[in-house]
Specification:
The complex is a heterodimer.
Chain A (H helix, E strand, L loop, with lengths): L2 H15 L18 H12 L15 H14 L33 H9 L4 H8 L3 H10 L2 E4 L7 H7 L5 E5 L19 H10 L5 E5 L5 H10 L5 E5 L2 E4 H10 L5 E5 L2 E3 L18 E3 L9 H10 L5 E3 L6 H10 L5 E3 L11 H4 L12 E3 L13 H4 L4 E3 L7 H8 L7 E5 L3 H11 L5 E5 L14 H10 L5 E6 L4 H10 L5 E6 L14 H10 L5 E3 L6 H10 L5 E5 L5 H10 L5 E5 L5 H6 L9 E5 L5 H10 L3 E6 L12 E6 L12 E3 L1
Parallel strand pairs in A: 1-2, 2-3, 3-4, 4-6, 5-7, 6-8, 8-9, 9-10, 10-11, 11-12, 12-13, 13-14, 14-15, 15-16, 16-17, 17-18, 18-19, 19-20
Antiparallel strand pairs in A: 20-22, 21-22, 21-23
Helix pairs in contact in A: 1-2, 2-3, 4-6, 7-8, 9-10, 11-12, 15-16, 16-17, 17-18, 18-19, 19-20, 20-21
Chain B lengths: L3 H12 L7 H4 L17 H12 L4 H10 L18 H4 L30 H16 L11 E6 L6 E4 L6 H12 L22 H7 L3 E6 L5 E3 L5 H7 L2 E6 H4 L2 H11 L7
Parallel strand pairs in B: 1-5
Antiparallel strand pairs in B: 1-2, 3-4, 3-5
Classes of the chains: A alpha/beta, B alpha+beta.
């Protein structure tokens, strides 16, 4: 292999490997065409390093190498202020910085470079930027304010702090996604405290923290509230381990709080007193979301809070807030852009449309509406005045029927995103198709997902109706009990712009109900037609053919969820071979075994993670994988001891520069 | 005279041409304790997995055993999902048999779910469970949810239906609707389609229709008693009906006298 090709290959890897540390969703990573020499330099610098050094192979250049270069520099350049100094190993291509900049390759002085790069937001772009050359790498790391860590175990807080000195905002994701569906035991890990401890020294001015599927304790929340004096924004989604006492600490101590966003967590709800802990002096709140908390808060405290926070733009209250309380709140914050209502009915003297007809009349900025618990046709007209401007309407907790929805949607011409319950039926979806031509996202949730005996809900025909009327659809999540290949093919033709296609036929392994054939052709049609597809969730009776299609056509696919599908190892192999951009693969209850697992040996380091549960994988194969790929953590969740032959029931594989977990509970074996 | 079993066999032949689906093995039957119901190998939810096994030969049953045999995740007791296994021991479990029915029938087996399927987050699961209960309890017409859904089951059919009693105004409408809904499940010729006037104590049209198929329509009232449909005035019926069941005439023999006796004694609609 000639040296140039070798380097080029490595650049590619660095590109994708860097996303171990920093990666994002939307924009595509642009491969960097130039400067393979920089990689070479990284390599040679690295060879003088100790510590986290591993012999450089012509494999994936991992983030740690870039980092270890980094950390060797930081000790020498600790007097850094705004200037970035080049490395001592100057060469003709990348010269040292001097203030005159006369021998520089790049034309900008560092300050300009940093200022320009500060405007680059996307993580993928930033990853690409950091690979251009040393200069740009350093400019990038100094100008970065937000770091996104898609897997908290892929990197350690120390490494992050070493590389990015000036972070103000962190997004951190922990447990594998299937933990949302109870497939991951409690105490699995993803504790946020080690991160907070490091951040308290590295980023004392941290302002934002967004956590998803992390384990968070009240102590951690209190630590956060007390140690970070300028802290502004906290968002917790699908986390667990804390109670409303933790929220008390946040409310009490965060003097500059702008955002408190609590969504769907495993929270111990001890009461609504936390809201009363906001001091009277707090006027900075812009986002407050406590819709998923069950206990009642003091309305008086809430009203006062809302009144004094003039910049409030997002308010999502919980179900205990009544309609007339809501009306009072809205009178204080007409500037609201996003509203989540409380319960949307109550006993009235004259009638809802009379008593509440002005509720929304002053809310001229309202573009998102959610909540609407218990909304009935009698009360929905209250929101009509606001409907024309709405771009996102979340009716997924309102058990509406088709005619009720139809009446409502006739007022909602601007909708881009719509979430529904399947009580609206196919007829309701017809209304969606006719009323919402701008629709880009549709999610239809099942009202009664566990009652297998019912045949209510939506079917393939509702989906087809929507696709006819809404050609701009790009995101769909659809729960149904029956589907056909022909319908999905039609849908794909109507909406070729899908980026996210998540179809859940709720009965596992169910075929096309008309032809009785597997649903292979349905997903085949999707991947063939929708070339921009990034995320796919499949269901129904599926053979290896589905995976063959996916591997062959879904070239932009990044996330794939598979359940109860496939016929043999080939299925998984097709996907691993064919989907070059695959980052997350989660599989449950499929007949994929060791051969399938090991076919991805060279692939997993370019992915964020792999989950396989209730498949046919043995401990042996996992051990082989772990041995061959030391830069992966191969974790098996076990319930009992077994020999080499025993099944590996839950396997979680992910790339990491942080080595094996130090906090793994006893039931997690890192091989 | 063809037996019930053979009739049902024909029913399934018609329903599913694809023999791979093996519906017979997966049929949901409301068997009587001690009666001869065919051995089931998997519960209704697991039947779908059975379908999968038929189509996918390789090692999948191993995967099932491997997957489901393992102990369930501990999740703080919040969830009520139950692990499904194909092991027979679990499947023999039947729910409580109502004593009032004199052992004539049993309610359907508890829904056995696969862990984490369908993939819905806990918050939504718990929230919808609460809402759903609220809706089912709401049958006060003043609050007017506008619907009164009751489940309709038919002996031998693989799944239930739900009907909204509010949308019908008399037994006639209900019977036509049910006839349409369940016609695919019955063989046998319907009797004459002549209409009879509604009369509290005479047989309904539906019973005529079903008579040929050896089925009768019964309902469970608020007291938990099973009564023949048609015995009481329509308004009283919908006020007290909790669920409907199309059962075999042979099973319904014990009901008739009690039903008539009850309606004779009944002077006013049942209160909640």
């Amino acid at each position: 292999m000639n040296p140039h090709r070798k380097r080029a290959k490595t650049v590619d890897r660095v590109d994708s490997a860097d996303s171990a540390l920093v990666s994002s969703e939307s924009t595509q990573m642009r491969p960097f065409p130039s400067k393979p020499l920089s990689v070479d330099r990284v390599k040679s610098v690295e060879s003088s390093e100790s510590g986290r050094m591993r012999p450089f192979k012509d494999k994936i250049l991992f983030v740690d190498r870039v980092d270890s270069v980094e950390s060797s520099e930081s000790s020498r350049t600790s007097q850094f202020s705004d200037k970035i100094s080049g490395f001592d190993r100057a060469d003709s291509v990348e010269a040292r910085v001097d203030s005159a900049g006369s021998t520089r390759m790049s034309r900008f002085p560092d300050e300009v470079l940093e200022r320009v790069l500060a405007l680059v937001d996307s993580h993928k772009d930033r990853s690409a930027v950091s690979l251009v050359c040393k200069e740009w790498y350093n400019a990038e790391r100094w100008s970065r304010r937000h770091v996104f860590i898609g897997n908290c175990y892929s990197v350690s807080p120390e490494i992050v702090a070493a590389r990015f000195p000036r972070i103000r905002s962190v997004t951190l994701k922990g447990k594998p996604r299937f933990s949302d569906f109870n497939l991951v035991p409690e105490d699995w890990g993803a504790d946020v405290q080690p991160w907070l401890s490091v951040f308290s020294t590295a980023y004392p001015f941290l302002e934002e923290l967004r956590l998803k599927r992390m384990a968070v304790t009240d102590e951690s929340l209190e630590f956060l509230a007390k140690k970070f004096h300028g802290f502004k924004a906290l968002s917790l989604l699908s986390c667990d381990g804390f109670s409303t006492d933790g929220l008390k600490a946040i409310a009490t101590h965060c003097k500059n709080l702008t955002e408190l966003d609590i969504q769907e967590n495993g929270i111990d709800d001890l009461g609504g007193h936390w809201l009363s802990c906001f001091p009277d002096s707090l006027t900075s709140l812009e986002i407050l979301n406590f819709a998923s908390l069950n206990s009642e808060v003091s309305f008086d405290a809430l009203e006062k809070l809302v009144s004094r926070c003039k910049s409030l733009r997002v308010l999502k209250v919980n179900r205990n807030i009544s309609l007339d309380q809501l009306q009072k709140l809205l009178s204080h914050c007409p500037q609201l852009m996003e509203l989540g209502t409380g319960t949307f009915m109550q006993e009235l003297i004259s009638g809802p449309v009379t008593e509440f007809k002005n509720m929304f009349s002053n809310c001229r900025n309202l573009i998102t509406l959610s909540g609407l618990w218990d909304a009935t046709p009698l009360y929905l007209p209250v929101i009509y005045p606001a409907c024309a401007r709405l771009t996102f309407l979340n009716l997924s907790y309102a058990t509406l029927r088709s005619d009720e929805l139809s009446n409502l949607l006739s007022h909602c011409k601007s909708l881009r995103r719509l979430w529904l319950l399947d009580t609206v039926g196919d007829k309701g979806l017809e209304a969606v198709g006719s009323c919402c031509p701008l629709l880009e996202e549709l999610r239809v949730f099942p009202a009664d997902p566990f009652d297998q005996e019912i045949l209510l809900g939506v079917t393939e025909s509702g989906f087809v109706s929507v696709s006819r009327g809404c050609p701009k659809l790009r995101y769909v999540l659809y729960f149904c009990r029956q589907m056909t290949n022909a319908a999905v093919a039609t849908i794909a033709q109507n909406c070729p712009d899908f980026t996210h296609f998540r179809l859940c036929i709720m009965n596992p392994g169910q075929p096309d109900y008309l032809t009785k054939e597997p649903m292979d052709e349905a997903f085949g049609a999707i991947v063939k037609t929708c070339t921009k597809l990034q995320r796919l969730a499949i269901s129904g009776l599926l053979t290896d053919r589905t995976f063959e299609y996916i591997g062959k056509y879904a070239k932009n696919l990044e996330t794939l969820s598979v359940a109860f599908a496939g016929s043999s190892d080939l299925g998984m192999e097709y996907v691993l071979q064919g989907c070059q951009k695959l980052r997350k693969l989660e599989i449950r209850d499929c007949p994929f075994g060791n051969a399938a697992l090991l076919s991805g040996l060279t692939k997993y380091e370019s992915m964020r993670s792999l989950w396989m549960s209730a498949c046919n994988v043995t401990m042996n194969a996992c051990r082989v994988l772990a041995k061959e790929r030391p830069r992966l953590n191969v974790e098996v969740m076990r319930d009992e001891e077994g020999g080499d032959d025993s099944q590996a029931n839950k396997v979680y594989v992910y790339r990491t520069v942080a080595g094996p977990r130090k906090d793994a509970p006893p039931f997690v074996l890192t091989l | 005279m063809i037996t019930n079993m053979e009739k049902q066999a024909q029913a399934y032949e018609i329903m599913a041409n694809n023999k791979d689906l093996n519906l017979k093995a997966t049929e949901l039957r409301l068997g009587l304790p001690g009666s001869e119901s065919p051995e089931r190998e998997v519960v209704v939810h697991g039947s779908a997995i059975k379908i999968l096994v038929a189509g996918a030969k390789r090692g999948f049953s191993d995967a099932i055993n491997g997957g489901y045999g393992v102990g369930l995740v501990k999740n703080g007791g919040q969830e009520t999902d139950v692990l499904v296994t194909p092991k027979p021991a679990l499947l023999e479990k039947k729910t409580q048999v109502s004593d009032k029915l004199n052992g004539q029938s049993s309610s359907p087996a508890p829904k056995q779910q696969v862990v984490g399927w369908p993939p819905i987050r806990s918050f939504r699961k718990n929230t919808m469970a609460v809402s759903h209960t609220k809706n089912e309890e709401k049958d006060d017409p003043k609050i007017g949810s506008g619907c009164l859904y009751v489940k309709v089951s038919m002996d031998g059919a693989p799944y239930l239906r739900k009907v909204d009693l509010e949308i019908y105004s008399c037994y006639l409408d209900l019977s036509s609707a049910l006839e349409k809904m369940f016609s695919c499940f019955t063989i046998g010729q319907y009797g004459s389609h002549e209409v009879r006037t509604r009369d509290g104590l005479s047989e309904t049209r539906l019973m005529d229709l079903l008579h040929g198929s050896e089925y009768v329509l019964t309902y469970e009232d608020k007291d938990g008693d099973w009564m023949l449909v048609g015995d009481v005035p329509w308004d009283m019926f919908i006020a007290s009906c909790k669920r409907l069941r199309i059962m075999k005439s042979s099973d319904a023999i014990g009901l008739a006298p009690r039903a008539r006796e009850k309606s004779r004694n009944c002077t006013e609609p049942n209160n909640e």
